[in-house]
Amino acid sequence: MRRTAVLRPLLAWALLLALAVAWLGADFAFGQATLVATYAIAGLGVVVIIGQAGQIVLGQGAFVALGAYAQALLVQAGVAPLAALPLAAAAGALGGALASLPAGRLGGLYFGMSTLAFALIVEELLVRWESLTHGSAGLVVPAFGLAGWTAGTPAAQAAISLAVLLAVLAVCARLLASRLGRAWRAVREDEAAAAACGIAPAAAKLRAFAVGGALSGLAGGLYAHWIGFISPEQFGLVFSFELLMLAFIGGTRRLAGAAWGALVVVAIPQLIAVLRDTLPGDWARSAGLELMLFGAVVVGVVLLRPQGLAGGSGR
Amino acid sequence: MLAFLQVLSSGIAIGCVYGLVALSFVLIFKATQTVSFMQGDLLMLGGFAGLALHLAAGWPLALAALAAVLAVALLGAGLERAVLRRTIGQPHLVAVLLTFGLGMMMRGGVASVPAAAQDMYRLPFAADTLVLGPLVLAASHLWVIGATVVLALLLAAFFRHTRAGIALRACAEDARSAALMGVPVARMHTLAWALGAGLAAVAGLLLAPITFVHLNMGFIALKAFPAAVLGGLTSLPGALAGGVFLGVAEALAGLVLPEGAKDVVPYVLLMAALLLFPTGLAGGRGGGDGR
What we know:
Helix content of chain A: over 70%
Structural class of chain A: mainly alpha
Distance between the termini of chain B: 34 Å
Low-confidence stretches of chain A: none
Number of domains of chain B: 1
Oligomer: heterodimer
């Protein structure tokens, strides 16, 4: 039973990828698959923090930024990309742990606000610390490579991101079934009751943020390579909210929600671009239409499918 | 000293705008327990509505401004009736996302008007300066401060002396008891959203001579959140005071601290306030100036 529960969605995703390759051409489809997988890894961090541990996080983009900058700086300093990735994840985890510190004093919405402030401070720091980050001018990141081989083609990049995504999903699934995962869900449902059962809510939250931050940091490390150029404004508040929407559209209670959400968040702008070319007139070419439709999707999902596309009542 | 006074006046003025947006946020949050992340977009909409009515439709400025505020208030009420009502009783994040999505739709809607997307505009009022001896003050700053004081007094009177205002307060205090006392709670929620949206539009119109009207003027709401939190999230006078405090702190930081530090100040203050005073500076006491 467990095996089919894993196999069926995998087959569905493989079919989807095959269709995309056949319809849109291999390079484009693999490029999109790379982005979807990378966003999914970042979104998984939101799913862990919000869906499992039940904490509000409004600044997830900061963890991605920390991962991306750590990766870029390490690779520039001569560290092999593969060796730098764990350090990028560690940077994200450190950021997550730092951002979760106010949780000891604040609850719910106030704590969410503090993560927002954390993200804005991180963004400002990245802009201002010019000797390290080159400020708004950004950093150029060399291609991902391993011992002389570089992942230059979209297919190779897609393969790497998908492999990382699958590995991360497997790890997360194990984690959720463990003592820590149960502690998270207990804290989510009722903090006082969880504490009465011998779970330390503060420690559980800290770990949720560390894990969520690590996932997003890892995604940031990959993202830096795929895009090839990073600057602070890529990881601003809009990005944080994009990740939040990603998790909500997909469904925060299921790990698979991150993948579905990433598909929607990455695919909808593409879909709108295709639609735009078929529409007559100038007004359709403005960026406003894209924003409007995207907003409509968010509103629609929140209203009509509050559990997200992956649905279900959760575990 | 002179520079200090001028910086202070501009700090108070921009702080008043923060305060007004924070006020609109807190008003909605108190009455409906809904976190609105679209106040900045309502502000931008108010600015553009006034602009369109004045410049494109040729209405007199005062009439255009009034109509813009009413239109945005009506939009707020309509949105509450149509969609926002459904977030009541759900986790905060649902409202956050819903309002953020609605805000995106508003921004997208304005951005698809080509004339609006490309330029910055200024409303033709309060462009001159006022000279008081050696002191030169921007008229727009005085306008903002004056209008904020008047609005605060009006709101205070509304919440103290009118039936609707008292009902709204009862609703914010305890919705169930209010309902038992015959307060139409659902209608009060609509009223709260209308007021909140209208206030944001006023803030947009007041901001117009200072930063001009443009698509991203709503980002100022990001600084209004710290102001609201500084005030404790549930205190109206606290929100206004928090806004002014933040504006002044930011302006002084621009004067004293190195270049660039100014923009971080609100968030650092927010973090500090959250950690040191978990219930807000005005938390605990209902107190403050206007109520």
